[in-house]
User: What shape does this take?
Amino acid sequence: MSGRKTFPSGGIELASRKSLSRGSAIRNALIPPIATVPLLQHLGTQALCLVKPGDRVEEGMAIGGASGPISARVHSPIPGVVTEIAEVTLASGQRSLAVRIELDGSFSRFQARGWPSLGPDLPAEEIVALLADGGVVGLGGALLPSHLKLSIPKGEPVDVLVVNAVECEPYLTGDYRLLVEKPRELAEGIRLAARVCRPKEIILALDQSSDHAIEALAAAAAQAGCPISAIGLRSKYPQGDEKQLLKALIGREIPPGETPLAVGAIVVNVATVYALFEAVVLRKPLFERVVTVSGGAVRSPANLKVRFGTPIGSLIEECGGLKTVPKRIVAGGPFIGHTVLDLSTPVTKGVSGVVALTAGEVHEGTRTPCIGCGRCIEVCPMGLNPIRLLKQVEHSLGAEALEAGLLDCKECGCCSYVCPARVPLVEGLRLGKRAARSAEAVR
Amino acid sequence: MSLAGSEPLAISPHLHREITTARIMWGVTACLLPAGLWGVWQFGPRALLVVLVALLAALAGELLVGLLRSRPTVRDGSAFLTGLLVGYLLPPGVPLYVPAAASLFGILVVKGSFGGLGNNWMNPAIAGTVFAFFSWSAARRGWIAPLAWSPPAGASWAEPLAFVKSAALTSGAHGPIELLASAGYPVSRFSQALGGWLHGALGLGIDAHYLDLLFGCVPGSIGEVSPLLLGAGSVYLFRTGIITWHVPASLGGTFLVLVAVFGGLPYGAGFFAGNPVFHLLSGSLALSALYMACDPATSPMTAKGKLIFGAGVGALGALLRLCGSAPDGLPLAIILMNIATPLINGLTGPGRFGGGSGRPRA
Assistant: This one.
């Protein structure tokens, strides 16, 4: 269908490979006998450890407390006994203290029994407090604590609340399954989010391939008393990034270094809305999420509801194991996710997928000289000249690179994806950004 | 569950488009083959020899550069492509030192000395050929009558562009095709028969010289003569995204418009009396617009830059073809615009995101 909205410049159209797991309904992953729960699962500072070895914990009990202005609580995903507090490496490569819990006890607390009606008048402050209590963070990738995102400074009007269900990364289908399976819960979550940020308008943004999920959700939202308009955007990566998203939906460009609020918008991922619903309505903190397990090397791709602290390897086993040796196993989506070095790496709030890719999917190659074809410029959604920035970084021309917009790069991966010479553009620009930031810190 | 064989650490993104530099080079080479085989068929084993010498010299040069820099690069296909293009740009009857010298100059001086693939600022195949043209007059002669002209009556005819250029002022004809017809320029039996059939069955009066130009039944440089096969080969390049429409469209458009406006002047026919179809089908237009001007290393990087570059090649090409001393002019126009490519790149950077429409002021 033509006339679909999208962002005007850059981006790539690609095989989404979502059909591998799209039809698989969300099912509960096995409860891990031992959960390794990192205390850094969010943007900001690592949570303070609230338990010690030998302590008995309940399912959903806080084991980490917010440690500063930007931090989030962490909860026990299983009932049991704390055996160890140890440092672990996260999928992102960061190091974090983690609480190791051995399963023991019962799961009585959050058994589904319908949800209590909150009525229309729940105060915004209470919703924000429940989000902070529940450790809810942005599940789209940024991991910003949601109580901070939704706390709008006084005098900042919110024109539009965007619920982001675009899920532009290939392979991932967790957001799509939530749309299809949980329309009523999402509608209530959207209503509660809107109570906090009071937008003039609510837009549900999704991919054109998810059009059929709109009707049920729009009906549920209307019934919940908060009408939404749903827009199916053209399938293009990175349409789900908030800059490209707002450009496509309302035609506004977030200036460099600013947040959506600079253009009067709040963007909340659909999985975050679901977590908000659970935290506020069911008083259930965030200790599990939907994870897509997929990739050409996985035997039976699926969407699993996984408790944090579950080792990534056991999810692959649960999906029939590997049918071939993967070239790379990625936590998150293949464009911005991180390769997993160790299959015991725990699932955390930021892990939206576990994707085991074959060599035939990765299409790796060794770096050869740039032939100047310009493909990287053509696909950069930020309007940068990636190869020129890389040369500036490699020749220590940091000031020129900053001038040319180095810090606008969000490492979406489009440039490296299309480069026929396999120049590691994202890797180089990432190093350049790090160098620029540490130079800034010194000054 | 074993992870043996997967890499320890890799930076995102974890997917890549299948296309690589080597695939681009070999893909372009494959698309060029039909036109070259046609040239070899029409002009005989001598043409094959010229192409082979050009290829071998290019590969030898690339090997030498690779040895000097201890970085072998022959398998990326770019030297093969350069050698092939050198062969395609030469008349089939040139002395064999011409293709050898042209390829070696292109690979060693134009490409290798600037740092190899991607760092050359001029198309090595054209630069090598132009070097040979300026060095030896024998490199500008050596036309062989095509096989399609049987019997070999027309052995001494020059290729059409060279022919009309030298005869334009002295003849009374009003355009190139009329000139060819009045001078008795040979026509293949196939095109005569096809022209007759088109006239009889469809009522289309098409001069058989046009058909000969389209199919490549004329004397000419080995790989240039068949615009039909060159165009057919380019379909794959467009479909796979190896080339985009920008350079061919702006080059061809500018060139044809200028030729239509000014092409009649050499015949004393005034403005707007040119014959763009003749110029579209003759000389190296197809090879230049679809292959050589699209060389990624020596053409600009952005769409806007490509449009400017193509228009520049088209304009210079028309000027040189109509007013220059050499018959064609397009290859020379390409390397002249290659010089301007860094400047165009500097002027046509992308527009940064975030400077545009922000929040409307209340």
In short: The CA atoms of residues 102 and 261 of chain B lie 35 Å apart. Chain B touches chain A through 51 residues (CB under 8 Å). Confidence is low (pLDDT under 50) at residues 1-7 of chain B. The radius of gyration of chain B is 22 Å.
